[in-house]
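Contributing new complexes? Match this layout with magnesium ion.
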Amino acid sequence: MEKISIIVPCYNEEEALPLFYKEITKIAKKMKKIDFEILLINDGSKDQTLEIARSLSKKDQRVRYVSFSRNFGKEAAMYAGLEYATGDYVAVMDADLQDPPELLEEMYRLIQEEGYDCVGTRRVTRKGEPPIRSFFARCFYKIINKMSKVEMVDGARDFRLMTRQMVDAILSMNEYNRYSKGLFSFVGFQTKWLEYENVERVAGETKWSFWKLLLYAFDGIIAFSTAPLSIAVFVGILFCIVSFIMILVIIIKTLCFGDPVGGWPSIVCIMFFLSGIQLFCIGVIGAYLSKTYLETKHRPIYIVKETEKTE
Ligand code: UDP
Ligand code: MG
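Output block (do not edit by hand):
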């Protein structure tokens, strides 16, 4: 019998998790020919999530869990899930039912019958999201797709079903700074996109503030593009050309009209402008340097405190 592993990163999901379990068992019942493994990754929750995971796994042997020693973030939770999953197919799903479990059946069919390696989902609407956030999200996708060779699909969710082959390819990239949207796309393979309307969370609240999303966007750009590093080169060349022209203008002006003193405000403005650009470019280099620094430490992506086997 073929097995589908479902990875569920959970961070403070005590309210949503029981509802999620109810829905997923319904689907499992419907898809009789397939074995299921539900892998709950407790990402250092501060509420009752771990207790719920423990009791679910006692009650139902299809449920397994891995509990981290602290909060390592969703990216780390997904990576751990991929490492622990034993299924022939692996799906990643949020605990808040924003990823409709009904789609699993169709996803499995597409892989089985139409030969795709991966079926991803993207939401075509951003209903229920603050408009300003949607606006920035759209801008982000435009910018990153211009800057990076790896294609990032607008509205793509982490909810996807993959073959074992693709999972192994993703696991082979054990980088510390993980930006999954890019990693999924980087490995290639045939991906089919299913579209659906945005669904709001069943319970609990989102862990993403606007500020966190913005930082995450920068991480994505740094992880999948080196274009910002060349900003200094282009701006530098541009400014050299401008300064040559200015030198010529000043020489000619002085020869023709003498050298009256003045113009210090313009000098101050130019100084501020140029030092701003220099600091900006140093900052960009610093951003890449810091990522390289973290990468070279080879710290573990996550630390496990407990699993259903150690209980
Ligand atoms: N999550 C996690 N670790 C974190 C933050 C979130 O494992 O540090 C999980 C969370 O429990 C949920 C999923 O990632 O299952 C998506 O989180 P959320 O619903 O807050 O994000 P949104 O859907 O608003 O993008
Ligand atoms: Mg959510």
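Reviewers usually confirm one structural detail per submission. For this one: The chain is about 50% helix and 15% strand.
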